[in-house]
């Protein structure tokens, strides 16, 4: 089954490009460490999911590029074409001249309806190229105007036009200390709208990824390109083919469906966080070895203590002792309770790895059955030159604090009515803000009482 | 890509405007090596086939034939505009883009606004329409004028009004040169306050500039160069005050250095809209992020660095120094100290080889020493443009919506009241058709209201921050 990616706004297009690049270079790489048959299977599955082939044999990404101003898209298209190993379909993009001005209302209420037909036509064309459509992934930021506002509108349109398809929004959360002054308003409006239309939201926080770049990758002058490459690596580690059933020999034919089934048991809980280990600078790879028990131990503690990466983990955080109810006050603070977890293992000796520690009932909310709440996917095919690589996609309280912080700041600003005139001039009224706040307070409340 | 049109009104407006076009050409020449008329150029210039007189092919790949500025030059006396048309920039301007008269406005806002406004209205609208038609997607009008005189102040604000009526969707950014205390025009307080009312009501963003600040910056640079403290030589074309490398290099007039600073301000402001970068900042984003309430749209600007040394290797300490300088009092383009007043919002537009981590590090470093309003504690808007200005490897433009503009307005009001109480020179204004005493009282009342809004915000500074209680959800 194939996935159609919609890249929205500057962030969405910049990241989308890095993702396809990472998928392509991983697939073509000779580091697979597995049998040729396995490698071929992997390659075919990846191709089917993300690329179609034109007569020249160059893979073309199954993607639609959308932006309200032309500079980023033209750069993205030309960078991909220059790579020589893949490209975008140069017909599959839509752009305007003027940008959304960081204004959610402009993206949602003006650009959305105005360009709905053109954009959805492009999506339809890409969907038709798929033998079987497995669903949509949108890539966007929520701080700006296009990715956020137009992105929310397009997600709604996708839901309306493709009611049976899975929709995953990959959302980038901005740095806490501003990139955009009205980012909290834009974020609140985006998240509340996406929550209604999408199946799940897979989140990357700029602050977290920045830390990974600084402390793990040892990059001195971190650029957005560096941040985007880490994000692309992490997304690749989730989207590349893996075996879902124990001992199953075929790669999953329904990646998005499988993801939703394992991670979103209840529509109230849709926020997914992503962690990946190990992450080291590329030139250190040949000199490093990792053991599975070590990786799994770290990954589990990253889950429990809500750490962004394998350094600086708080090892003091422990799950609550067995027998305590989830509403008991004895529950340790800072402990991250989960709804569902998915661990994806790639590389050497994956079938021998013991993941029992992730099935510990104390990790999960009391009303869940740990057998159902935890899943593992594996493949012996190594990813992106890492001999062993483990990813965790978690529906847990990972994002509770950041979400609460964003809503708090937005509410604080809303109380003074600052900037509201910029939204009302494009048709987003105070009631719309209040609706969004209500939706998100509900989400916060649900996650808090796990 | 969008286009912008510059409307330069009056003597000051045209002199600054002239420097702007000169430096714009210089900047694009440095970037555009192939002589192709690209999107970046088209934001401020048309590509014209001079033989036919119509626009040449406007598609990006075309070669440059003859560049014409997207500008309107307006002055009620001919001296300045004529000089421009006889000077080295004459080919950049189309004769159809000019509106001139002979006798000037006599430093009288009413003459500029009411008399000439009425007289030239049709003409101005027609020329504006023509200029707009040449644009694929017109995003912004930049008005350049001074506040203290008659034409720039009166006719300039008349045009501002006109732009709102005729092109309501297009942004209006106004660069206003405010008179200093020792201004030799006696009626400048009247002209300025009358113009302020128009700016309050019809501008999207105002970038106030004071001659005193420009003069101080020029002096500072001259001192640094002459004192020999710099060790290595300064790159001439990197001076924010210099015209080196531009079309006009001979005979630098006295105001040229100061006007170059303002020209550089406008170039830096629009750089991210014209050139690529990892975090673009367009003009509509500036307005969106820096104007929390419609009338509080006065932005204090600062440009750093003022010059570059010929050293190629810039250690990152210098980079951090650039950020610190942007917040110091002597780099601001008005006489104000934003560090000790209250920030409503702040934008940092970085050009050149600077990464997001440098930006974040400096924001973290400077934040504790700045006072932000309670509902906008992290009120930073950032932009990264890859193309540095001529002669620099990197530069920073800081735009602040800060209550430090208040003293400038208060002083203006005081100077106004000094004259108004005695009814000095009032008759020169009131004898103009359409001008009444109420124009004066309304103008000063509008200014007072504005000052009051800033006062209310200042009152919240340093006070206890009570966070409003959040919505309660029924579980």
From TrEMBL, chain A:
Subcellular location as annotated: Cell projection, Cilium; Cytoplasm, Cytoskeleton, Microtubule organizing center, Centrosome, Centriole; Nucleus
Keyword tags: Cell projection, Cilium biogenesis/degradation, Cytoplasm, Cytoskeleton, GTP-binding, Microtubule, Nucleotide-binding, Nucleus
GO biological process: cell projection organization; microtubule-based process
The keyword GTP-binding is annotated on this UniProt entry: yes
Record carries keyword Nucleus: yes
Pfam families: Tubulin
MF terms (GO), sorted A to Z: GTP binding; structural constituent of cytoskeleton
InterPro entries: Delta_tubulin, Tub_FtsZ_C, Tubulin, Tubulin/FtsZ_GTPase_sf, Tubulin_C, Tubulin_CS, Tubulin_FtsZ_GTPase
Domain Tubulin/FtsZ GTPase, first and last residues per copy: 47-247
Cofactor(s) recorded in Swiss-Prot or TrEMBL: Mg(2+)
Chief place of localization: other
SMART domains from the UniProt entry: Tubulin
Function as written in the Swiss-Prot or TrEMBL entry: Acts as a positive regulator of hedgehog signaling and regulates ciliary function.
Known partners and oligomeric status: Dimer of alpha and beta chains. A typical microtubule is a hollow water-filled tube with an outer diameter of 25 nm and an inner diameter of 15 nM. Alpha-beta heterodimers associate head-to-tail to form protofilaments running lengthwise along the microtubule wall with the beta-tubulin subunit facing the microtubule plus end conferring a structural polarity. Microtubules usually have 13 protofilaments but different protofilament numbers can be found in some organisms and specialized cells.
Family in the record: Belongs to the tubulin family.
Protein name: Tubulin delta chain
Gene field: Tubd1
UniProtKB/TrEMBL annotation, chain B:
UniProt subcellular location: Cytoplasm, Cytoskeleton, Microtubule organizing center, Centrosome
Claim: Disulfide bond is one of the keywords in the record: no
UniProt KW Nucleotide-binding keyword: yes
Sample GO molecular function, one term: GTP binding
Record domain Tubulin/FtsZ 2-layer sandwich: where: 279-414
Pfam families: Tubulin (PF00091), Tubulin_C (PF03953)
Cofactor(s), names only, from the UniProt record: Mg(2+)
GO BP terms in the entry: microtubule-based process
Domain Tubulin/FtsZ GTPase: 61-277
Gene Ontology cellular component terms for the protein in this record: centrosome; microtubule
Keywords: Cytoplasm, Cytoskeleton, GTP-binding, Microtubule, Nucleotide-binding
InterPro entries in the record: Epsilon_tubulin, Tub_FtsZ_C, Tubulin, Tubulin/FtsZ_2-layer-sand-dom, Tubulin/FtsZ_GTPase_sf, Tubulin_C, Tubulin_CS, Tubulin_FtsZ_GTPase
Stated family: Belongs to the tubulin family.
UniProt subunit comment: Dimer of alpha and beta chains. A typical microtubule is a hollow water-filled tube with an outer diameter of 25 nm and an inner diameter of 15 nM. Alpha-beta heterodimers associate head-to-tail to form protofilaments running lengthwise along the microtubule wall with the beta-tubulin subunit facing the microtubule plus end conferring a structural polarity. Microtubules usually have 13 protofilaments but different protofilament numbers can be found in some organisms and specialized cells. Found in a complex with TEDC1, TEDC2, TUBE1 and TUBD1.
The protein's name in its UniProt record: Tubulin epsilon chain
Lineage start: Eukaryota, Metazoa, Chordata, Craniata, Vertebrata
């Amino acid at each position: 089954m194939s996935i159609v990616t919609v890249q929205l706004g500057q962030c969405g297009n910049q990241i989308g490009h890095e993702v396809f690049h990472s998928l392509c270079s991983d697939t073509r790489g000779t580091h697979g460490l597995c049998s040729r048959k396995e490698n071929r299977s992997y390659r075919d599955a990846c191709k089917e999911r993300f690329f179609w082939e034109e007569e020249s044999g160059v893979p073309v990404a199954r993607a639609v590029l959308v932006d309200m101003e032309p500079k980023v898209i033209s750069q993205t298209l030309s960078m991909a074409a220059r790579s020589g190993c893949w490209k975008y379909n140069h017909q599959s993009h839509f752009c305007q001249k003027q940008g959304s001005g960081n204004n959610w209302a402009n993206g949602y209420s003006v650009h959305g309806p105005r360009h709905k037909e053109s954009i959805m036509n492009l999506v339809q064309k890409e969907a038709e190229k798929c033998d079987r459509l497995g669903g949509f992934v949108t890539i966007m930021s929520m701080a700006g105007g296009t990715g956020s506002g137009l992105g929310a509108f397009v997600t709604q349109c996708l839901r309306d036009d493709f009611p049976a398809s899975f929709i995953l929004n990959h959302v980038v959360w901005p740095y806490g200390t501003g990139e955009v002054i009205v980012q909290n308003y834009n974020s609140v409006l985006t998240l509340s709208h996406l929550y209604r239309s999408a199946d799940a939201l897979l989140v990357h926080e700029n602050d977290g990824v920045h830390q990974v770049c600084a402390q793990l990758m040892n990059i001195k002058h971190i650029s957005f390109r560096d941040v985007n490459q880490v994000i692309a690596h992490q997304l690749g580690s989730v989207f590349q083919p893996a075996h879902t059933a124990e001992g199953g020999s075929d790669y999953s034919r329904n990646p998005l469906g499988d993801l939703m089934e394992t991670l979103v048991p209840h529509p109230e809980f849709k926020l997914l966080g992503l962690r990946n280990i190990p992450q080291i600078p590329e030139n250190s790879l040949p000199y490093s070895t990792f053991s599975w028990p070590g990786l799994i131990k770290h990954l589990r503690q990253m889950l429990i203590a809500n750490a962004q990466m394998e350094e600086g983990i708080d090892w003091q955080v422990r799950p609550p002792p067995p027998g305590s109810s989830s509403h008991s006050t004895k529950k340790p603070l800072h402990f991250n309770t989960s709804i569902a977890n998915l661990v994806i293992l790639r590389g050497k000796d994956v079938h021998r790895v013991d993941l029992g520690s992730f099935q510990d009932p104390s990790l999960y909310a009391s009303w869940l059955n740990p057998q159902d709440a935890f899943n593992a996917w594996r493949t012996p095919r190594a990813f992106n030159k890492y001999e062993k690589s483990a990813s965790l996609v978690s529906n847990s309280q990972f994002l509770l604090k950041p979400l609460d912080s964003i809503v708090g700041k937005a509410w604080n600003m809303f109380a003074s009515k600052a900037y509201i005139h910029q939204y009302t001039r494009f048709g987003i009224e105070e009631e719309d803000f209040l609706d969004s706040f209500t939706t998100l307070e509900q989400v916060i409340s649900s996650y808090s009482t796990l | 890509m969008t286009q912008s049109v510059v409307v330069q009104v009056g003597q000051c407006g045209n002199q600054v405007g002239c420097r702007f076009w000169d430096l714009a050409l210089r900047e694009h020449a440095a970037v555009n090596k192939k002589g192709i008329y690209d999107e970046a150029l088209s934001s401020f210039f048309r590509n014209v086939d001079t033989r036919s007189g119509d626009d040449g092919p406007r598609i990006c790949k075309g070669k440059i034939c003859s560049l014409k500025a997207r500008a309107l030059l307006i002055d009620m006396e001919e001296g300045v505009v004529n000089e421009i048309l006889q000077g080295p920039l004459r080919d950049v301007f189309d004769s159809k883009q000019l509106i001139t008269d002979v006798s000037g406005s006599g430093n009288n806002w009413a003459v500029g606004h009411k008399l000439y406004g009425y007289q030239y209205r049709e003409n101005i609208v027609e020329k504006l329409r023509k200029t707009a038609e040449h644009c694929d997607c017109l995003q912004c009008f930049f008005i350049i004028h001074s506040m203290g005189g008659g034409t720039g102040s009166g006719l300039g604000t008349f045009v501002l009004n006109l732009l709102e009526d005729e092109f309501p969707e297009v942004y209006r950014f106004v660069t206003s040169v405010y008179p200093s205390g020792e201004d030799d025009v006696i009626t400048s307080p009247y002209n300025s306050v009358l113009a302020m009312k128009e700016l309050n009501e019809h501008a999207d963003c105002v970038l106030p500039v004071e001659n005193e600040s420009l003069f101080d910056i020029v002096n500072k640079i001259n001192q640094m160069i002459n004192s020999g403290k710099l060790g290595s030589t300064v790159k001439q074309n990197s001076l924010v005050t210099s015209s080196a490398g531009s079309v006009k290099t001979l005979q630098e007039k006295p105001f040229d250095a100061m006007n170059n600073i303002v020209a550089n301000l406008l170039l830096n402001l629009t750089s991210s809209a014209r050139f690529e970068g990892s975090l673009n900042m367009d003009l509509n984003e500036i307005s969106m992020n820096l104007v929390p309430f419609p009338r509080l749209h006065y932005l204090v600007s600062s440009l750093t660095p003022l010059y570059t040394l010929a050293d190629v290797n810039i250690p990152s300490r210098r980079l951090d120094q650039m950020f610190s300088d942007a917040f110091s009092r002597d780099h601001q383009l008005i006489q104000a100290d934003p560090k000790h007043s209250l920030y409503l919002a702040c934008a940092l537009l970085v050009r050149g080889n600077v990464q997001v981590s440098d930006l974040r590090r400096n924001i973290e470093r400077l934040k504790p020493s700045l006072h932000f309003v309670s509902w906008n504690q992290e009120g930073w808007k950032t932009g990264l443009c890859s193309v540095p200005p001529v002669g620099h490897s990197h530069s920073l433009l800081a735009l602040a919506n800060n209550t430090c503009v208040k003293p400038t307005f208060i002083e203006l009001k005081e100077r106004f009241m000094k004259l108004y109480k005695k009814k000095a020179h009032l008759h020169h204004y009131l004898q103009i058709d359409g001008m009444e005493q109420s124009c004066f009282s309304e103008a000063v009342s509008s200014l007072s209201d504005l000052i009051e809004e800033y006062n209310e915000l200042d009152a919240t500074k340093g006070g206890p921050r009570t966070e409003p209680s959040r919505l309660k959800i029924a579980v």
